[in-house]
Amino acid sequence: MFRLELVDESTRRSTGVDVTYWAINSDGSATLHQKARHWQNFEYGDYSARFVLKLAECAYEYKLVPAPNSPVSHANGRPEYIWDKLILERSELMPSGEGMGPIEILKEALRAYGGGWMENQANPDFDVTFNF
Questions:
Q1: Which one, out of 26, 70, 96, 105, has a CA that is 20 to 30 A from the CA of 42?
Q2: C-alpha–C-alpha distance, residues 76 and 117, integer Å
Q3: Cα(80)–Cα(74) distance, rounded to whole angstroms?
Q4: Element housing 119 (H / E)
């Protein structure tokens, strides 16, 4: 089970991951964080996001492309984040034959990640859907 958590300075130093928040599993053995995006990507119509999933000694970098209408706001006010496409950009120490990596773990972490820290504070009830 993953949860979204703020990352303090000592954790940033010890992990070498310079982020404000991440999704982390209950025993701390897996984390997911989003890499920074440049504003020009949006200018050129690239709304994709890059996420890094770390499991023990393996690291997977994924590019996720949202559906054209994501996030969707439903009548009940509950946002839905829809991920349309998934691309494995790179992996470190990935066991051979693993293909795209641990997709189910990635999906579980993204369900906790939602729209990120600020969005989740404003809308704590949300859905995450995958088209891959």
A1: 105
A2: 21
A3: 8
A4: helix 117-122
